[in-house]
Protein backbone atom coordinates (compact mmCIF):
# COMPACT_ATOMS: atom_id res chain seq x y z
CA UNK A 1 0.00 0.00 0.00
CA UNK A 2 1.16 3.51 -0.76
CA UNK A 3 0.36 6.79 0.94
CA UNK A 4 -0.30 9.46 -1.70
CA UNK A 5 0.46 13.11 -1.09
CA UNK A 6 -1.30 14.96 -3.89
CA UNK A 7 0.39 18.29 -4.61
CA UNK A 8 -0.83 18.59 -8.21
CA UNK A 9 -3.26 21.42 -7.51
CA UNK A 10 -5.35 23.15 -4.87
CA UNK A 11 -8.35 22.03 -6.98
CA UNK A 12 -8.06 18.51 -5.51
CA UNK A 13 -9.37 19.78 -2.17
CA UNK A 14 -12.65 18.27 -0.98
CA UNK A 15 -15.47 20.08 0.81
CA UNK A 16 -15.13 20.24 4.61
CA UNK A 17 -17.77 18.86 7.02
CA UNK A 18 -19.25 22.32 7.55
CA UNK A 19 -19.51 22.77 3.77
CA UNK A 20 -21.35 19.42 3.47
CA UNK A 21 -23.65 20.47 6.30
CA UNK A 22 -24.42 23.74 4.54
CA UNK A 23 -25.11 21.91 1.28
CA UNK A 24 -27.76 19.75 2.93
CA UNK A 25 -29.37 22.49 4.98
CA UNK A 26 -29.60 25.50 2.67
CA UNK A 27 -32.74 27.08 1.30
CA UNK A 28 -33.07 26.51 -2.45
CA UNK A 29 -34.97 27.97 -5.40
CA UNK A 30 -34.61 28.34 -9.17
CA UNK A 31 -31.58 30.54 -9.70
CA UNK A 32 -32.37 31.17 -13.37
CA UNK A 33 -35.49 32.96 -12.07
CA UNK A 34 -33.24 34.68 -9.51
CA UNK A 35 -35.05 32.78 -6.74
CA UNK A 36 -32.30 30.79 -5.03
CA UNK A 37 -31.79 32.59 -1.70
CA UNK A 38 -28.47 30.85 -1.06
CA UNK A 39 -27.04 31.91 -4.43
CA UNK A 40 -28.36 35.43 -3.95
CA UNK A 41 -26.75 35.63 -0.51
CA UNK A 42 -23.42 34.36 -1.85
CA UNK A 43 -23.48 36.88 -4.71
CA UNK A 44 -24.11 39.76 -2.27
CA UNK A 45 -21.38 38.49 0.04
CA UNK A 46 -18.75 38.32 -2.73
CA UNK A 47 -19.75 41.69 -4.20
CA UNK A 48 -19.31 43.27 -0.75
CA UNK A 49 -16.01 41.45 -0.17
CA UNK A 50 -14.62 42.84 -3.41
CA UNK A 51 -16.19 46.29 -3.06
CA UNK A 52 -18.19 46.03 -6.29
CA UNK A 53 -21.89 46.52 -7.03
CA UNK A 54 -22.86 42.99 -7.98
CA UNK A 55 -21.69 39.41 -8.50
CA UNK A 56 -22.73 36.34 -10.49
CA UNK A 57 -22.23 32.72 -9.43
CA UNK A 58 -20.87 30.63 -12.32
CA UNK A 59 -19.75 26.99 -12.59
CA UNK A 60 -16.04 27.58 -13.18
CA UNK A 61 -13.20 30.06 -13.42
CA UNK A 62 -12.93 29.41 -17.14
CA UNK A 63 -16.55 30.41 -17.65
CA UNK A 64 -16.12 33.50 -15.46
CA UNK A 65 -13.17 34.70 -17.56
CA UNK A 66 -14.94 33.91 -20.83
CA UNK A 67 -18.07 35.81 -19.80
CA UNK A 68 -15.94 38.80 -18.76
CA UNK A 69 -14.30 38.83 -22.19
CA UNK A 70 -17.65 38.40 -24.00
CA UNK A 71 -19.28 41.27 -22.15
CA UNK A 72 -16.36 43.70 -22.16
CA UNK A 73 -15.50 43.02 -25.82
CA UNK A 74 -19.02 42.97 -27.22
CA UNK A 75 -18.12 45.01 -30.29
CA UNK A 76 -17.01 42.78 -33.19
CA UNK A 77 -13.34 43.24 -34.07
CA UNK A 78 -12.35 43.70 -30.43
CA UNK A 79 -9.12 42.49 -28.91
CA UNK A 80 -8.13 41.69 -25.35
CA UNK A 81 -4.50 41.93 -24.28
CA UNK A 82 -3.38 39.23 -21.83
CA UNK A 83 -0.07 37.99 -20.46
CA UNK A 84 1.64 35.31 -22.54
CA UNK A 85 1.73 33.10 -19.41
CA UNK A 86 -1.83 33.80 -18.33
CA UNK A 87 -4.37 31.05 -17.71
CA UNK A 88 -6.71 32.78 -20.17
CA UNK A 89 -4.13 32.47 -22.94
CA UNK A 90 -2.53 29.12 -22.12
CA UNK A 91 -5.27 26.97 -20.62
CA UNK A 92 -8.71 28.12 -21.73
CA UNK A 93 -8.65 26.67 -25.26
CA UNK A 94 -8.68 30.12 -26.81
CA UNK A 95 -12.33 30.35 -25.78
CA UNK A 96 -12.16 34.10 -26.34
CA UNK A 97 -11.67 33.46 -30.06
CA UNK A 98 -13.59 30.20 -30.26
CA UNK A 99 -16.77 31.31 -28.52
CA UNK A 100 -16.64 35.08 -28.15
CA UNK A 101 -15.01 36.06 -31.47
CA UNK A 102 -12.41 38.12 -29.63
CA UNK A 103 -8.76 38.35 -30.64
CA UNK A 104 -6.33 37.62 -27.82
CA UNK A 105 -3.05 39.52 -28.09
CA UNK A 106 -0.27 38.73 -25.68
CA UNK A 107 2.25 40.78 -23.79
CA UNK A 108 5.24 39.10 -22.20
CA UNK A 109 4.81 38.39 -18.50
CA UNK A 110 7.73 39.23 -16.25
CA UNK A 111 8.70 36.57 -13.68
CA UNK A 112 6.64 38.42 -11.04
CA UNK A 113 3.42 38.07 -13.09
CA UNK A 114 3.32 41.73 -14.16
CA UNK A 115 4.22 43.13 -17.57
CA UNK A 116 5.81 46.35 -18.77
CA UNK A 117 3.27 49.17 -18.84
CA UNK A 118 5.12 51.18 -21.48
CA UNK A 119 5.17 48.15 -23.73
CA UNK A 120 1.46 47.67 -23.03
CA UNK A 121 0.69 51.25 -24.00
CA UNK A 122 2.54 50.73 -27.28
CA UNK A 123 0.32 47.73 -28.02
CA UNK A 124 -2.99 49.52 -27.55
CA UNK A 125 -4.59 50.09 -30.93
CA UNK A 126 -7.77 50.67 -32.86
CA UNK A 127 -7.40 54.18 -34.26
CA UNK A 128 -6.14 52.83 -37.61
CA UNK A 129 -8.69 51.22 -39.93
CA UNK A 130 -6.42 48.14 -40.35
CA UNK A 131 -6.35 47.29 -36.67
CA UNK A 132 -8.49 45.37 -34.20
CA UNK A 133 -9.79 47.56 -31.36
CA UNK A 134 -8.16 47.00 -27.96
CA UNK A 135 -11.08 46.86 -25.56
CA UNK A 136 -9.81 44.90 -22.56
CA UNK A 137 -6.69 44.12 -20.56
CA UNK A 138 -6.74 41.01 -18.35
CA UNK A 139 -4.32 40.34 -15.49
CA UNK A 140 -3.93 37.32 -13.20
CA UNK A 141 -3.54 37.49 -9.40
CA UNK A 142 -2.02 35.40 -7.97
CA UNK A 143 -0.16 34.37 -11.09
CA UNK A 144 -0.24 30.62 -11.51
CA UNK A 145 2.49 29.93 -14.08
CA UNK A 146 4.76 32.52 -12.44
CA UNK A 147 4.56 30.42 -9.26
CA UNK A 148 1.74 31.99 -7.25
CA UNK A 149 3.21 35.50 -7.52
CA UNK A 150 1.25 38.40 -6.04
CA UNK A 151 0.86 41.47 -8.25
CA UNK A 152 1.98 44.70 -6.53
CA UNK A 153 -1.03 46.91 -5.74
CA UNK A 154 0.76 50.01 -7.06
CA UNK A 155 1.31 48.27 -10.40
CA UNK A 156 -2.40 47.36 -10.64
CA UNK A 157 -3.35 50.95 -9.78
CA UNK A 158 -0.97 52.32 -12.43
CA UNK A 159 -2.36 49.88 -14.98
CA UNK A 160 -5.92 50.90 -14.08
CA UNK A 161 -4.99 54.56 -14.67
CA UNK A 162 -3.54 53.70 -18.04
CA UNK A 163 -6.69 51.76 -18.98
CA UNK A 164 -8.87 54.72 -18.01
CA UNK A 165 -6.70 57.06 -20.08
CA UNK A 166 -7.28 54.88 -23.16
CA UNK A 167 -10.90 54.02 -22.36
CA UNK A 168 -10.09 50.32 -22.01
CA UNK A 169 -11.57 47.98 -19.42
CA UNK A 170 -9.57 45.97 -16.90
CA UNK A 171 -10.40 42.41 -15.82
CA UNK A 172 -8.60 40.46 -13.12
CA UNK A 173 -8.50 36.67 -13.23
CA UNK A 174 -8.51 36.42 -9.46
CA UNK A 175 -8.92 32.66 -9.27
CA UNK A 176 -6.52 32.86 -6.30
CA UNK A 177 -7.18 36.50 -5.36
CA UNK A 178 -7.68 35.60 -1.70
CA UNK A 179 -4.19 34.08 -1.66
CA UNK A 180 -2.91 37.49 -2.76
CA UNK A 181 -5.00 39.24 -0.13
CA UNK A 182 -3.74 36.84 2.54
CA UNK A 183 -0.12 37.31 1.52
CA UNK A 184 -0.36 41.11 1.42
CA UNK A 185 -2.59 41.28 4.50
CA UNK A 186 -4.69 43.75 2.55
CA UNK A 187 -8.46 43.40 1.94
CA UNK A 188 -9.29 41.98 -1.48
CA UNK A 189 -11.45 45.02 -2.14
CA UNK A 190 -8.36 47.26 -2.07
CA UNK A 191 -6.43 45.04 -4.46
CA UNK A 192 -9.16 45.07 -7.12
CA UNK A 193 -10.23 48.71 -6.69
CA UNK A 194 -9.10 49.72 -10.19
CA UNK A 195 -10.55 46.65 -11.93
CA UNK A 196 -13.84 46.70 -13.82
CA UNK A 197 -14.41 43.01 -13.24
CA UNK A 198 -12.88 40.20 -11.22
CA UNK A 199 -13.30 36.43 -11.27
CA UNK A 200 -12.69 34.48 -8.08
CA UNK A 201 -12.64 30.67 -7.68
CA UNK A 202 -14.17 28.90 -4.70
CA UNK A 203 -12.88 25.47 -5.68
CA UNK A 204 -9.13 26.00 -5.43
CA UNK A 205 -7.48 26.82 -2.08
CA UNK A 206 -10.89 27.71 -0.63
CA UNK A 207 -11.81 24.05 -1.19
CA UNK A 208 -15.48 24.30 -2.08
CA UNK A 209 -16.56 21.57 -4.51
CA UNK A 210 -17.26 23.86 -7.49
CA UNK A 211 -17.99 27.39 -8.57
CA UNK A 212 -16.58 30.83 -9.20
CA UNK A 213 -17.89 34.34 -8.89
CA UNK A 214 -17.71 37.10 -11.46
CA UNK A 215 -17.90 40.54 -9.91
CA UNK A 216 -18.40 44.05 -11.31
CA UNK A 217 -20.96 46.83 -11.82
CA UNK A 218 -24.75 46.23 -11.90
CA UNK A 219 -24.75 46.88 -15.61
CA UNK A 220 -21.86 44.46 -16.26
CA UNK A 221 -23.41 41.69 -14.16
CA UNK A 222 -26.79 42.12 -15.90
CA UNK A 223 -25.11 41.43 -19.22
CA UNK A 224 -22.97 38.67 -17.68
CA UNK A 225 -26.14 36.92 -16.49
CA UNK A 226 -27.43 36.80 -20.07
CA UNK A 227 -24.09 35.45 -21.32
CA UNK A 228 -24.02 32.78 -18.58
CA UNK A 229 -27.44 31.53 -19.71
CA UNK A 230 -26.32 31.37 -23.33
CA UNK A 231 -23.22 29.36 -22.34
CA UNK A 232 -25.39 26.86 -20.47
CA UNK A 233 -24.28 28.05 -17.07
CA UNK A 234 -27.75 28.78 -15.65
CA UNK A 235 -27.92 26.25 -12.80
CA UNK A 236 -31.42 26.16 -11.23
CA UNK A 237 -31.16 24.98 -7.55
CA UNK A 238 -27.53 26.09 -7.48
CA UNK A 239 -27.75 26.85 -3.77
CA UNK A 240 -26.41 23.34 -3.09
CA UNK A 241 -23.16 24.56 -4.68
CA UNK A 242 -23.30 28.15 -3.45
CA UNK A 243 -23.76 27.13 0.20
CA UNK A 244 -20.30 25.55 0.55
CA UNK A 245 -18.78 28.54 -1.25
CA UNK A 246 -20.11 30.90 1.44
CA UNK A 247 -18.66 28.61 4.12
CA UNK A 248 -15.38 28.52 2.17
CA UNK A 249 -15.12 32.31 2.35
CA UNK A 250 -15.70 32.27 6.12
CA UNK A 251 -13.36 29.35 6.83
CA UNK A 252 -10.46 30.17 4.49
CA UNK A 253 -7.12 29.19 6.01
CA UNK A 254 -4.81 30.13 3.16
CA UNK A 255 -2.00 31.47 5.36
CA UNK A 256 -1.35 27.91 6.52
CA UNK A 257 -0.92 26.75 2.91
CA UNK A 258 1.51 29.62 2.31
CA UNK A 259 3.51 28.71 5.42
CA UNK A 260 3.73 25.07 4.37
CA UNK A 261 4.74 26.04 0.83
CA UNK A 262 7.50 28.20 2.29
CA UNK A 263 8.74 25.24 4.39
CA UNK A 264 8.82 23.00 1.31
CA UNK A 265 10.64 25.66 -0.73
CA UNK A 266 13.20 26.23 2.05
CA UNK A 267 13.88 22.51 2.45
CA UNK A 268 14.44 21.98 -1.29
CA UNK A 269 16.66 25.06 -1.45
CA UNK A 270 18.59 23.85 1.60
CA UNK A 271 19.52 20.60 -0.16
CA UNK A 272 21.95 22.65 -2.30
CA UNK A 273 21.62 20.28 -5.25
CA UNK A 274 22.88 21.23 -8.68
CA UNK A 275 19.91 19.63 -10.44
CA UNK A 276 17.02 21.24 -8.57
CA UNK A 277 16.47 24.85 -7.56
CA UNK A 278 13.72 26.94 -6.01
CA UNK A 279 13.48 30.73 -6.06
CA UNK A 280 13.10 31.09 -2.29
CA UNK A 281 13.31 34.88 -2.50
CA UNK A 282 10.38 34.88 -4.89
CA UNK A 283 8.29 32.42 -2.86
CA UNK A 284 4.93 34.06 -2.08
CA UNK A 285 1.84 31.91 -1.70
CA UNK A 286 0.81 28.25 -2.01
CA UNK A 287 2.65 27.31 -5.23
CA UNK A 288 6.25 26.10 -5.26
CA UNK A 289 8.03 25.91 -8.60
CA UNK A 290 11.07 23.65 -8.83
CA UNK A 291 13.39 24.26 -11.78
CA UNK A 292 15.56 21.52 -13.19
CA UNK A 293 18.96 22.77 -14.36
CA UNK A 294 19.20 23.33 -18.13
CA UNK A 295 22.44 21.32 -17.95
CA UNK A 296 20.78 18.31 -16.35
CA UNK A 297 19.91 15.35 -18.57
CA UNK A 298 16.66 14.99 -16.58
CA UNK A 299 13.29 16.37 -17.54
CA UNK A 300 10.29 17.11 -15.34
CA UNK A 301 8.36 14.03 -16.51
CA UNK A 302 11.14 11.70 -15.39
CA UNK A 303 11.18 13.34 -11.97
CA UNK A 304 7.40 12.98 -11.64
CA UNK A 305 7.64 9.32 -12.63
CA UNK A 306 10.25 8.69 -9.94
CA UNK A 307 8.16 10.50 -7.31
CA UNK A 308 5.32 8.12 -8.20
CA UNK A 309 7.46 5.01 -7.57
CA UNK A 310 8.44 3.44 -4.26
CA UNK A 311 11.70 1.51 -4.08
CA UNK A 312 12.59 -1.04 -1.40
CA UNK A 313 15.43 1.05 0.03
CA UNK A 314 12.99 3.88 0.78
CA UNK A 315 10.71 1.76 2.94
CA UNK A 316 13.66 0.02 4.59
CA UNK A 317 14.86 3.47 5.60
CA UNK A 318 12.76 6.26 7.07
CA UNK A 319 10.89 7.34 3.94
CA UNK A 320 7.57 5.83 4.98
CA UNK A 321 4.50 6.41 7.13
CA UNK A 322 4.16 5.14 10.71
CA UNK A 323 2.19 2.25 9.18
CA UNK A 324 5.22 1.34 7.03
CA UNK A 325 3.55 2.53 3.82
CA UNK A 326 5.78 3.93 1.11
CA UNK A 327 5.02 7.48 -0.05
CA UNK A 328 4.05 8.74 -3.51
CA UNK A 329 4.12 12.46 -4.26
CA UNK A 330 2.05 13.80 -7.12
CA UNK A 331 2.88 17.14 -8.76
CA UNK A 332 2.54 18.55 -12.27
CA UNK A 333 4.96 19.57 -15.02
CA UNK A 334 4.66 23.16 -16.21
CA UNK A 335 7.22 22.51 -18.89
CA UNK A 336 10.17 20.24 -19.59
CA UNK A 337 12.25 21.77 -16.81
CA UNK A 338 9.66 23.01 -14.31
CA UNK A 339 7.61 21.14 -11.70
CA UNK A 340 4.76 22.69 -9.75
CA UNK A 341 3.95 21.62 -6.18
CA UNK A 342 0.78 23.18 -4.74
CA UNK A 343 -0.09 23.27 -1.06
CA UNK A 344 -3.72 23.18 0.02
CA UNK A 345 -6.11 22.29 2.83
CA UNK A 346 -5.74 18.50 2.40
CA UNK A 347 -2.02 18.85 3.16
CA UNK A 348 -1.62 19.20 6.88
CA UNK A 349 1.75 18.96 8.69
CA UNK A 350 1.87 15.15 8.54
CA UNK A 351 1.35 15.06 4.76
CA UNK A 352 3.82 17.90 4.33
CA UNK A 353 6.56 16.06 6.21
CA UNK A 354 5.93 12.83 4.30
CA UNK A 355 6.18 14.80 1.05
CA UNK A 356 9.37 16.47 2.20
CA UNK A 357 10.93 13.09 3.11
CA UNK A 358 10.05 11.64 -0.26
CA UNK A 359 11.06 14.67 -2.32
CA UNK A 360 14.37 14.92 -0.45
CA UNK A 361 15.09 11.22 -1.02
CA UNK A 362 14.23 11.32 -4.72
CA UNK A 363 15.95 14.65 -5.49
CA UNK A 364 19.19 13.51 -3.82
CA UNK A 365 19.05 10.18 -5.63
CA UNK A 366 18.43 11.77 -9.05
CA UNK A 367 21.04 14.46 -8.50
CA UNK A 368 23.66 11.80 -7.74
CA UNK A 369 22.61 9.44 -10.56
CA UNK A 370 22.32 12.09 -13.29
CA UNK A 371 25.01 14.70 -12.60
CA UNK A 372 24.61 18.16 -14.08
CA UNK A 373 27.05 18.70 -16.95
CA UNK A 374 29.35 21.61 -16.24
C1 LIG B 1 -5.34 31.40 -12.65
C2 LIG B 1 -6.49 30.52 -13.05
N1 LIG B 1 -7.53 31.06 -13.67
C3 LIG B 1 -8.58 30.33 -14.05
C4 LIG B 1 -8.63 28.98 -13.80
C5 LIG B 1 -9.80 28.19 -14.31
O1 LIG B 1 -10.60 27.66 -13.30
P1 LIG B 1 -11.58 26.44 -13.58
O2 LIG B 1 -10.73 25.22 -13.51
O3 LIG B 1 -12.56 26.54 -12.46
O4 LIG B 1 -12.21 26.62 -14.90
C6 LIG B 1 -7.57 28.35 -13.16
C7 LIG B 1 -7.59 26.91 -12.91
O5 LIG B 1 -6.67 26.30 -12.45
C8 LIG B 1 -6.45 29.15 -12.78
O6 LIG B 1 -5.38 28.61 -12.18
Automatic annotation (TrEMBL):
Residues 6-291 form the Aromatic amino acid beta-eliminating lyase/threonine aldolase domain. The modification N6-(pyridoxal phosphate)lysine is found at residue 204. GO terms for biological process: glycine biosynthetic process; L-threonine catabolic process. Coiled coil: none annotated. Keywords: Pyridoxal phosphate. One of its GO terms (molecular function) is L-allo-threonine aldolase activity. GO terms for cellular component: cytosol. SUPFAM superfamilies: PLP-dependent transferases (SSF53383). Its cofactor is pyridoxal 5'-phosphate. Belongs to the threonine aldolase family. This is Uncharacterized protein LOC113394892. It comes from Vanessa tameamea (Kamehameha butterfly). The lineage of its organism: Eukaryota, Metazoa, Ecdysozoa, Arthropoda, Hexapoda. The gene is LOC113394892.
